[in-house]
Inverse folding.
């Protein structure tokens, strides 16, 4: 029987709620602790969610030898610092996306995993879901022929004043927050890195992008377009177009327990029903498999590095107003 891994929440962020349920559903995990910047905040959160241990600082949780895995849900600009500190404290880390905001920071995390022998994984939950795996399988089997074009959207209205997502220095902006999803999805489907990008952005008062519009070209001839933003109604979809058909995915980034995708070939459309699972359970199971059985995580740090490289080049392109090659 597998050892039960003790998990600790590094912050009291809202996204924690998505992970608490699967951590309690898995027989291989135990939610042991939560850390905050003050003891009173940690105590209140631990009481609300029935978490046994509350730490009044992030360092205090990392010093607890019984914590095996840390979930880093801090704001984007703090991901690198605390992921590396957790690795050096002997913990494995599941870090919210984006893993980092620079390529140098990714490389520092990669180096820390090699030095410590501990595991760090970026928490792109949709990548583990049965719908995502099925779409990838259908494309690889040639259902739509040779892939030519992918388009995607992820927008919603962000109305919370003072939210860190509006602040450039905190890793804010819609591209880092939601645009990362269609970029990640396209890279996964194509199976290689883009060679050129072109982006346009609409900046908000905090200096980060409220909306972003991008195009991406792959070396094998596949093209991709996407939009993301904080100022449009909720929209979320991906379409994959090939020489023999297309696949429409109405809920690509937050699939649920019951899912449908639509395949069009000629004048016929087929609905494929896909049984799902609790959205965040897959990334918990993936981490357990990596820690307990030495399996390679589904999302490698080099995969994360590729996504961050594309995002950075998009931001540079939008600033310069021209297409840019990715070396």
């Amino acid at each position: 029987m597998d050892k039960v891994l003790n998990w600790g929440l590094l912050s009291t962020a809202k996204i924690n709620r998505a992970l608490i349920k699967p951590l309690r559903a898995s027989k291989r995990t135990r939610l042991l602790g939560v850390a905050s910047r003050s003891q009173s905040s940690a105590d209140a959160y631990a009481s609300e969610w029935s978490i046994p241990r509350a730490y009044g600082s992030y360092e205090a949780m990392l010093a607890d030898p019984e914590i095996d895995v840390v979930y880093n849900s801090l704001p984007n600009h703090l991901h690198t610092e605390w992921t590396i500190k957790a690795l050096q404290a002997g913990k494995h880390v599941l870090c919210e996306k984006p893993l980092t905001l620079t390529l140098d920071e990714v490389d520092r995390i990669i180096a820390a995993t090699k030095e410590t022998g501990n595991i760090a994984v970026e928490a792109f939950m949709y990548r583990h879901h049965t719908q995502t795996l099925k779409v990838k399988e259908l494309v690889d089997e040639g259902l739509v022929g040779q892939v030519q074009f992918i388009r995607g959207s992820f927008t919603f209205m962000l109305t919370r004043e003072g939210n860190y997502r509006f602040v450039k220095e905190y890793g804010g902006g819609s591209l880092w927050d939601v645009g990362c999803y269609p970029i990640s999805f396209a890279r996964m489907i194509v199976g290689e890195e883009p060679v050129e990008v072109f982006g346009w952005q609409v900046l908000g008062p905090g200096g980060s992008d409220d909306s972003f519009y991008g195009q991406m070209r792959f070396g094998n001839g596949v093209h991709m377009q996407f939009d993301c933003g904080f100022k449009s109604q909720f929209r979320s979809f991906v379409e994959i177009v090939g020489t023999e058909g297309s696949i429409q995915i109405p809920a690509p980034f937050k699939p649920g327990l019951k899912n449908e995708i639509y395949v069009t070939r000629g004048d016929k459309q087929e609905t494929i029903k896909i049984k799902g699972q609790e959205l965040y359970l897959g990334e918990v199971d993936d981490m357990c498999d990596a820690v307990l059985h030495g399996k390679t995580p589904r999302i490698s740090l080099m995969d994360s590095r590729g996504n961050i490289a594309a995002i950075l080049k998009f931001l540079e392109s939008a600033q310069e107003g021209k297409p840019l090659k990715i070396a």
